[in-house]
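Write out the bound-state structure for 6-O-alpha-D-glucopyranosyl-D-fructose.
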Amino acid sequence: MDEWWRTAVVYQVYPRSFADSDGDGVGDLRGIESRLDHLSDLGVDVLWLSPVYPSPQDDGGYDISDYQDIDPAFGTLADFDRLLAAVHARGMKLLMDLVVNHTSDEHPWFQASRSSREDPKRDWYWWRPPRFGMDLGAPGAEPTNWGSFFSGPAWEPDEATGEYYLHLFSRRQPDLNWDNPQVRQAVYAMMRWWLDRGVDGFRMDVINMISKDPALPDGRVTGGEPYADGSESFINGPRLHDHLQEMHREVFAGRDGLLTVGEMPGVTVEDARLFTDPARGEVDMVFQFEHVGLDQGATKWDLRALDLRALKVSLGRWQAGLADVGWNSLYWDNHDQPRIVSRWGDGSPLAAKTLATLLHLHRGTPYVFQGEELGMTNYPWAGIEEFRDIESVNHFAAAVAAGQPAEEVLTALRAKSRDNARTPMQWDASPQAGFTTGTPWLPVNPDHVRVNAAAQAGDPDSVLAHYRRLIELRHTVPAVAHGDFTMLLPEDERVYAFTRAHQGVELLVLCNVSAAAAAVDVPGWDAAELLLGTHGTGGTGELAPWESRVLRRTA
Ligand code: ISL
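---
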């Protein structure tokens, strides 16, 4: 089997915020095409595009109204074909975002489905009458007590036909009914259409939520929350493996050189082994969420400091769990996460480099989110009116309505809002950071005068140069891609250390994830070669604040 992605690095572009070619303040496909040299210079193998399909943009394009076209804000299918050809001409591949747990409420499938209870597409979505004989819209009449991920109930009443439809995300993102075989065939046909056009695979949005327990039982009510957590009924649901295997047979079988990655909130390492076991024919790798949940309490808004030892336990378990069967994806940032250098670093270029070293020396396929390679930071949000993300805006309204002080809610949004990832890419020090000549749809981070691609391009000490070297190591040092992983110093609260071993070559990775100097004692490495280091210092001894080293020795 061609598992080329074992040595690959993926770069994620969030099209709204990457590069704007026409001055309307929104990024577009021609903008991306004009910046492809940045990706080739970095050395990445794959470009993953967040959704570019026609969409009312209720959830940043994750609400799709036509799966087989391009949103006019981003360009045309002809622009897409040009971009794809330009990506391929540089020897890179292109992944599309596949969002098929739900559609937009403006998708023709849903328009038909909601038109009458007898419509042939009625069963393509989850429609249910009000319960207990109550009136549509009456408090508690929802078919289950589930909350949506974006605040409020997961059911929306629809006056026209007197029933509710299910939406795990916004009310404008109705969930598709994957138990209906016509839904599955329509999705597979659409996927084949993109593959025939030349794309190289898919990142599959919340793909472990497509199978629901058809009994739709109530969820457990957790303290203080108005709606219950229904996830037991839709995370890794009863027919998920069947659906993924069917999709594999119907869409991917007989095609080579592809990559599939399933986004799977709530997935365990045991599940992930099954999903990514090549013999089962499901997906190549999954995005898991355990590590990005370590700095929260009951919800992402409940802020907690990261305990480095817990990060070691978590990532270490995933490394061990997928060592023989399956494969890991590795990520810090994406369009849903705050910026890693602000989150677990101190915002400095040094912290950005060391956090990058830590992640990129693990075994798995690393994903770099636009701007991460520059050390882009969280935005200094002044007030709620600056946020655009539906999750943030809805959470603020709901939390304040429930009596939480606005300033406290803002503190959580500043730390965790998805908009932190979505501010414009910082190309240069000019007023709109080279992103647009117009007014950007989200403000540019004022730190772009320091943190930008142009300033770093020729600087061998830059965060960008460090990422380039990390990517090169993965391509040229087989132990980085293939080596066995062993965690060291599990109790150390500041130093994250591990080895990788492959065919007589051993690597030692030492990362000081703290602002204080830290002593390390790992015997036998003093004569080892320094492959990459933030300070140019070799050996083990003392690490400066935020210092990291990668050492190599041969048995
Ligand atoms: O962002 C989150 C953390 O609060 C998650 O709940 C997130 O919504 C979840 O990881 C699923 O994400 C994906 O599907 C969503 C979309 O909003 C996200 O942007 C996408 O990555 C619905 O399509």
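---
Residues 59, 62, 99, 149, 169, 205-206, 263, 265, 300, 335-336, 391, 418 surround 6-O-alpha-D-glucopyranosyl-D-fructose (CB under 6 Å).
Residues 4-102+181-388+424-456 form a domain with the TIM Barrel fold (CATH 3.20.20.80).
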